[in-house]
Amino acid sequence: MDELVDSVKRSKESENIAICILDAGLKDDQKQKLLKKVDDIKSADWDIDVPDFKVRGREWLKSQVSSAFLPKYFPGYNKYLWIDADAWVNSWSAIELYFKGCENN
Q: Measured between alpha carbons, how far is residue 9 from residues 85, 89, 93, 99 in Å?
């Protein structure tokens, strides 16, 4: 997650966007480090009913469900882009293409 945030912040264009994190298992020290770099961190919930036998203690699965509900966690934005924590932004043009697609519905 830390490398993802750094990869976004590496681009000058990122100055005009908010970076928010949906927490599905961060430790307190990880949150404190990331809070210095991002706009907000919210804990994920089970936004739909998921049976315990499917969860089996894998609380990180919340992020897969909750990613569909980003406006609930981070209201007030016009566009939302989900990037998995194990990814990074190599070129800002990928972000531009995504946002261009948003404008074209």
A: 15, 9, 14, 17
Q: Which residue has the tokens 């919930």?
A: 45
pLDDT in tens, 6-17: 999 999 999 999
Question: Residue 37 CB: number of other CB atoms within 10 A?
Answer: 14
Q: Which residue has the higher pLDDT, 50 or 25?
A: 25
Measure the CA–CA gap between 21 and 5, rounded to whole angstroms: 10
Contacts of 55 (CB under 8 A, 6+ apart): 61
Bridge partners of 42, per DSSP, are 22
Q: Scan for tokens 């980003």, then name that residue.
A: 70
Determine the Cα–Cα distance for residues 98 and 22; give it in Å rounded to an integer.
20
CA pair distance 10, 7, nearest whole angstrom = 5
